Amino acid sequence: ASEKHPDATFAKLDTEAHQGLAAALQIQSIPTLMIFRDGIMVYRDAGALPPAALEDLIGQVKALDMEDVRRQVAEANAARDAESQ
Fold this sequence. Notes:
Pfam families: Thioredoxin
Number of strands: 2
Distance between the termini: 44 Å
Protein name: Thiol reductase thioredoxin
Organism: Corynebacterium humireducens
InterPro entries: Thioredoxin-like_sf (IPR036249), Thioredoxin_domain (IPR013766)
Domain Thioredoxin: 5-58
């Protein structure tokens, strides 16, 4: 997938060497696939995907309306903040 999508960054995390980051990302299963776009996590699931499913998922993420995603994140954060007060 990385060869077909040079505009995307693909990375692996050594959870043993970077336990703090793994904990912050709440990684409990290996592998865990996480996709970030514009600094926002837009996908997270434990387990590997077959190549065709991964390609489809990458296409869906690239097609996201990030203004709408940012609005949804802001609304969720505001609701969470209101509940904690």
